[in-house]
Design goal:
mainly alpha; 4 helices; 0% strand; elongated
Length: 129
């Protein structure tokens, strides 16, 4: 199996997931009177940065230290959760109460979608190695 191609596929899938979720978010703004622009941008940037970084780390680990791949998947999930808490804490400090509720809903959708994508993709890749 070509690890580099698999990681590139993961990045492409992450970008497509970002595009779909962003379109759904802007469609929701058209249907309901909420201003979710900042929440969508922050959430989208978060999942893109985390997903691209995890793809590059996975590529490096799979080529150099293949025995550490199960630890990698668990570690990335923990790191993703920790950074999500940091992002939400920063947003909490910088926003008001209504904005925080909307942000948690948008960020939660982006986060869970990205987490499901990550889990399915890397479990399939790890089973093939």
């Amino acid at each position: 199996m070509n690890i580099s191609k698999a990681c590139n596929n993961y990045i492409v899938h992450s970008i497509m997931l970002f595009a779909v979720l962003t379109c759904c978010g802007f469609l929701a703004m058209k249907l309901w009177p909420f201003d979710l622009t900042a929440a969508i941008i922050v959430s989208g940037c978060y999942i893109l940065i985390i997903d691209v970084a995890s793809a590059y780390v996975f590529r490096w680990l799979a080529t150099k230290h293949a025995d550490m791949l199960p630890t990698f998947i668990t570690g990335v999930s923990g790191f993703r959760f920790f950074t999500a808490l940091i992002v939400m804490a920063v947003w909490f400090v910088m926003s008001d109460r209504t904005s925080m509720g909307q942000f948690i809903v948008v960020f939660g959708i982006f986060y869970l979608s990205s987490l499901i994508h990550h889990s399915i993709f890397f479990s399939r890749i790890s089973n093939r190695l």
